[in-house]
Amino acid sequence: MFILTRFLSLLMFINVSVGKDLDKTPPKRLINGQNEELFDFPSLASLSKRRIGAWFHYCSAVLVSPTKLVTAAHCVRNKKIINVRVSLGMVNLFGPPNEFEQVLRVDKFDMHDGSYITNDIAVITMATPAKLNKNVKVVVLAEKDSNYVRENCTISGWGRELM
C-alpha cells in the first residue's frame, strides 16, 4: 500500500504541475495531437533514441532540476546512455529547431528496483545542466500538503509516434 501511495503521489505531481503555475487557468484540451500554445509546458522534455543513424522521439520526461529529469522506467530500461538524448525547449518534434531548443547528453539513469509495473519511475542525470530561460524551466511543484482530489489536471507529453 505504501508503494502504491508513493507512486500515485508522484503521478499527481507530474500530472498536476508539469511546467504550469498552479494558479493559472488550465489550457484548452488537446485532441488528436493538435498543438497547444508555444512553450506552454517549459519543463517538458523529449527523449530520443538513435536508430539507423537518426534520432527518433520515443518518450517524454519532466525537468525537475537543471540536471535531473523524471520519466517512466520503461523509457530507459535496457537503453544504452550513448543512444539516448534529451531535448528541451522544443515546440515541434518534426519542425526545425528553435532558438531555445537544447539537446543534452545523458550521464546516467537511476531506476526504482521494484517490480516493473508498480514502480515504473526513473531519474535521468544529464551530463551538463540545462540553460534555464522563459521557455526551459524546472517544473512547478505542488505544496507538500496540497489536495487535488476531484480537481481537473493537465497531462502533457509528446504522445507516441507510430512507425
From TrEMBL:
<dbReference type="GO" id="GO:0004252">
    <property type="term" value="F:serine-type endopeptidase activity"/>
</dbReference>
<dbReference type="InterPro" id="IPR018114">
    <property type="entry name" value="TRYPSIN_HIS"/>
</dbReference>
<dbReference type="GO" id="GO:0006508">
    <property type="term" value="P:proteolysis"/>
</dbReference>
<dbReference type="InterPro" id="IPR043504">
    <property type="entry name" value="Peptidase_S1_PA_chymotrypsin"/>
</dbReference>
<dbReference type="Pfam" id="PF00089">
    <property type="entry name" value="Trypsin"/>
</dbReference>
<feature type="signal peptide">
    <location>
        <begin position="1"/>
        <end position="19"/>
    </location>
</feature>
<protein>
    <submittedName>
        <fullName>Fibrinolytic enzyme, isozyme C-like</fullName>
    </submittedName>
</protein>
<dbReference type="InterPro" id="IPR009003">
    <property type="entry name" value="Peptidase_S1_PA"/>
</dbReference>
<feature type="domain" description="Peptidase S1">
    <location>
        <begin position="30"/>
        <end position="163"/>
    </location>
</feature>
<keyword id="KW-1015">Disulfide bond</keyword>
<dbReference type="InterPro" id="IPR051487">
    <property type="entry name" value="Ser/Thr_Proteases_Immune/Dev"/>
</dbReference>
<dbReference type="InterPro" id="IPR001254">
    <property type="entry name" value="Trypsin_dom"/>
</dbReference>
<comment type="similarity">
    <text>Belongs to the peptidase S1 family. CLIP subfamily.</text>
</comment>
<keyword id="KW-0732">Signal</keyword>
